[in-house]
Amino acid sequence: MSSKRTTTAAFIRALYNLTRKGTPFVDWSADGTTFRILDIKRFASEVLPHFFKHSNMASFQRQLNYFSFKKWTKNNRTLEAISKKGSIAEFHHPYFTRDMDESLLSCFRRKVASRSFEPLMDVYSQDYDTFGDASYEHRIVQSAGREKSSTVKNVVTDFLQSDLNVSDFVKQLQPTGCNYAGFNLVMFDGESLGYYCNLNPMGPTPDFTLLERDVLYGISNSVLGTPWIKVERGKAALADVLAMHKDQDDVALCRKLIRPMVDTTRIEAPELLPQTGCPEAMEYQLSSIFVEPVCNPKYPKYGTRTTIAMVVDGGHATILEKDLDPTTLQWNEHTHYF
User: Fold this and answer.
1) Taking a C-beta distance cutoff of 8 angstroms, is the pair 31, 64 a contact?
2) Which of 174, 196, 222 is the last residue of a domain?
3) CA distances, 291 to each of 82, 125, 255 (Å)
4) Both 92 and 136 in a single domain?
5) Which residue range is the domain that position 296 belongs to?
6) Res 320 pLDDT > 90
7) Contact 42, 88 (CB under 8 A)
8) 0.70 cut: is pTM over it?
9) Terminal-residue alpha carbon distance, the chain
10) What does the DSSP assignment read for 102-157?
11) What pairs with residue 79 in β-bridges?
12) pLDDT tens, 184-224?
């Protein structure tokens, strides 16, 4: 008769040791229910390598999330406060306390990952390799084979959970950016807006740009600056909206910003299509700003699903989100305030 051996996850064991050895930049709250990191940058560079053999703070926070730790905030901070990027982080788990019994470590288990969005992510990754030239596609396939477990959503989560500004986060991402399937990413930390792309047409090095103030940018399924007709049309429409904007409330402005994004006008002349390598009939369907659900057996779920407009003003954000139900083709609208 055999007995099942109970083991402790290596991450939890290392975390337990880290919080109990008088580690620099780490302490406990007064009641011993949350542990705190007092200087995030120095903790990442000086402490993490000793316990986890890396200095990636975003990866550390993602592991905490996997084991159901919560990052605590004492209040609903505005974007203005968030932009200050405080150097203290505090984490809580109901069973991970200063006075916990070491025998309880084996009870910590990873959360079961939700797969509800996996099909959509798979479709996105597969569809992306149809855009750009053949060298893009070849590198995307190679990178997917090297690191199948890495998905773009991990990059987004890492940034949102980190306390790094845009530039510092990209420096941390650069060494592994090419290990993901092709993606564009726009990041905002409350002060700076940055663009990152791992499909640099000039070579394997990912491209990063800090976007300038008072400049209109547009991007589609290619790199920033590619002058596709629908991109230029969208930028012109956005410029018109902003030129006519006069003391409207933020929700009203969001509604006007969304209108150009639901434009279904397609390119009529074949010679004006972007020549991405797709069949001409497919390129025609993709040539509008808003891509209606594509009737193509190779891309059965492809189409624009969500459109978002966001206005940031005075440290507060208003977000208007419109979702198209692919089965009923009905619009759902949501407004969020931060």
Assistant:
1) no
2) 222
3) 35, 17, 19
4) no
5) 227-338
6) yes
7) no
8) no
9) 58
10) GGGGGG--PPPPP-TTHHHHHHHHHHHTTSS-HHHHHHHHHHHHH-TT--HHHHHH
11) none
12) 889 998 888 999 888 754 445 567 888 888 888 898 888 88
